[in-house]
Amino acid sequence: MNTERNNYLIAGAALSGFAALLHLGCVVFGAPWYRFLGAGERVARMDLAGHWLPTAMALAMACLLSVWALYALSGAGVIRKLPYVRLALCFITAIYFLRGLAFPPLILVFPDNSTAFWLASSAICVLFGVVHLLGLKQAWWKL
């Protein structure tokens, strides 16, 4: 493990971990959380009807975001080095930026979400991407 802290990747891990917890909140608290976090009315109604898909999607996202948090911690030197950490962090950073910047076509796929949701969630994803990018830049030669 690295003795020099990479606060950007530690922050990135915390952000991804918090996002994972929010997705788990959807599973625990149901339709109101799906609505609040922007999954849309259709997903909230599916949850109220007892359909398995909203829970499966939220759990899948929580797992993915948890793995991303682990990779950020690995890149920061907080935990042991995971396989392909540099490649994974590049991918994670790119996905955050892509999600943040590609909201115009996503609006067409998820028309239930408000403009405020798209602007806020996209800004958050870009922020997550910036934090990861700064951490990746700082750790690049150590990965």
Q: How would you sum up this structure, described in words?
A:
- With 143 residues, the protein is mainly alpha-helical.
- It has one domain (7-142).
- The chain is 76% helix and 0% strand.
- The protein is built from seven helices and no strands.
- Helix 1 packs antiparallel against helix 4 (53-75), helix 4 (53-75) crosses helix 5 (85-101) and helix 5 (85-101) runs antiparallel to helix 7 (115-139).
- The longest helix is centred in the last third of the chain and has 25 residues, at 115-139.
- The relative contact order is 0.18.
- The mean pLDDT is 94.
Condensed summary:
The protein has 143 residues and is mainly alpha-helical. The chain has helices at residues 7-29, 31-36, 41-48, 53-75, 85-101, 103-109, 115-139. 76% of the residues lie in helices and 0% in strands.
State Rg.
Answer: 16 Å
Give the domain tally.
1
- Percent in helix: over 70%
What is the average per-residue confidence, as pLDDT, rounded to a whole number? 94
Cα shape: globular
Secondary structure: elements and pairs:
Layout: H1 7-29, H2 31-36, H3 41-48, H4 53-75, H5 85-101, H6 103-109, H7 115-139
Helix pairs in contact: 1-4, 1-7, 4-5, 5-7
Core attributes:
single chain; mainly alpha; DUF3995 domain-containing protein; globular; membrane; 143 residues
